[in-house]
Amino acid sequence: MMAPDTIPFEARLEARAEQVEALLRRLLDDRLLPGEIARPQQLFSAMRHGVLNGGKRLRPFLVLESAALFEADAEAALRVAAALECVHCYSLIHDDLPAMDDDDLRRGQPTVHKAFDEASAILAGDSLLTYAFDILADTATALPAERKLALVLGLARAAGPGGMAGGQALDLEAERSSPDEAGIIRLQAMKTGALIRYACEAGAILAGAQEEDRERLAEFGSAIGLAFQLADDLLDLTADAETMGKATGKDAAAGKATLAALHGIDWTRAQLRGLVAQAHALLEPYGERADLLRQAASFIAERSK
């Protein structure tokens, strides 16, 4: 078997995704947890449809590799990664609703409200968001209390009104009145960047790393979070729905302002190169140990779907 540092990046990404997928399947099965009364079949079917449908599991990957950078407990890191993926998938389920982005397709499959109904999609999203904090707080996530508290607080701030949910609110406002460039950057840092920033910082929190390391990994996360959104905006302009597994061209059709639409494709590609360089520079103190995170930054900026 090849050592982890010799495995091609995309194979490593896939292997990490399989680890997370296996844990999510166990977490979302029919077995009751202490204190639970029942697991309604329709609700859990909708939750599983929204979570166990493929995807690169990039945010969990960032948790796991940033945790490995500081030699954090691997099982605890896997549970934190799964909790974060529950939050991410809840956001996708709700974003796809008719009252939000009104999408019929996600990862090449019908969205939850299409496969089930709107009420089931709302409840599935609500349940996944709540369950994420259950996973973090559970004794099975074997971490000192102060680290758990930092992880819970960090995820709440990243997902809440000052982070992802607030970013979605700004995104909906942007359909009515186009924000300026600073407004677009703020919106994207909240809606997309906040969870990616958290994913990177979470690894340092898991390990009880120094504050300087936490800040450095958070800054790395901010850089690749912006790169992720720029690449997404670029793909919305240039890719087709079959390649992406979801509708494309919707931002332009809705009149939403994006940096790619504002400045053009060449500018966007130049910005992506700059953000990758910035991300790589932030990892310099960690030497070769951070190679997988460097590759992740490049992958995010250069992805084709």
Q: Looking across the biggest beta sheet, what order are the strands in?
A: 1-2
SSE string, helices as H and strands as E: HHHHEEHHHHHHHHHHH
Query: Residue share in helices?
Result: 55-70%
Number of strands: 2
- CATH 4th-level superfamily: Farnesyl Diphosphate Synthase
Q: What's the CATH class label?
A: Mainly Alpha
Q: Radius of gyration, Cα only, in angstroms?
A: 19 Å
Termini Cα gap: 29 Å
CATH architecture: Orthogonal Bundle
| Count of the separate structural domains | 1
Structural class: mainly alpha
Cofactor: Mg(2+)
Pfam families: polyprenyl_synt
Family: Belongs to the FPP/GGPP synthase family.
Keywords: Isoprene biosynthesis, Magnesium, Metal-binding, Transferase
Structure at a glance:
It is built from 15 helices and 2 strands. The protein has helices at 9-27, 41-51, 58-69, 74-95, 112-115, 118-137, 145-159, 164-174, 181-207, 211-238, 241-244, 250-254, 259-263, 265-282, 291-302, and strands spanning 105-106, 109-110. A two-stranded antiparallel sheet has the order 1-2.
